[in-house]
Request: fold
Amino acid sequence: MNIPTGFLDSSGSIPFSLPERDHRDDDPMARRISQNLRRLRDKGQVSLDVLAHSSGVRRALIVQIEAGRSIPSIKVLCRIAGALKVSIAEFLTPVEPHGALLLPAQDGTLQVNAAGTVTRRALYPAQAEPLVGFYELRLGPQAEEHVPGHAHCVQKNLVVAQGRLALSIGEEHFVLHTGDSILFRADQPHTYRNLLDSEAVAYLAQPSWR
Reply:
C-alpha cells in the first residue's frame, strides 16, 4: 500500500494505528463475535481495562468490538483470545437464541481451587448473557476461599443453604448460619471459611463483569 509521505514520522513509520473497519450493528459476524466476547469476559471475570492491558489492544477498540460495531482483524482477535486463554474458534461459535436456556447439573462451568476443597459452579449456561451472575459455592470441611478485591465497586449477595460460614471483609467479620444472607461490597479482599467438619453450600449473586 502506498502511503503519502506526509503520514510518516521521522523514522518512516506510520504514527498511528489504522482503525478497524466499522460494521453495521446487524452484521451477523460482528454480532456473533460481540456476543461471544461478552460471554468469555463474563466467564473469566475479566474487566475491559484488564483485557486491554493483557492483550495490548486498545480499550476503545475492544468496546467497539463488544458493541458489534467493528469486526477485529485476525491479529487483534488472536491477541484477545490469548489474553482470555481461549481459541479463536470460541469467538465464532453460534450463540443460542434468546429464550429459556436449560442448564443440566452436569454441564455447569465448574471452578475448583488448587487444594480441591472449594468449588464454584456457574448456574447459567456459558452462552448466556445474564445481567447478574449466579453461582453455587461448595466448601469442604474447614475449607477457605480467599477472594481479592474487585477493581470495580461490585456488590455481592451471599446466602448460606447448608452449614455455617465465616465471612471476613477487610476488618469486618460475620458468621452466617443456614438460611442467613448478606449483601456486601466486594471491592476489598474477602474470605469465606467453612466452620464445620461437614460440607457447606452457599449461593452467590453478583453483577456480570463489565
In short: The domain at 19-92 is CATH 1.10.260.40 (434 Repressor (Amino-terminal Domain)). The radius of gyration is 21 Å.
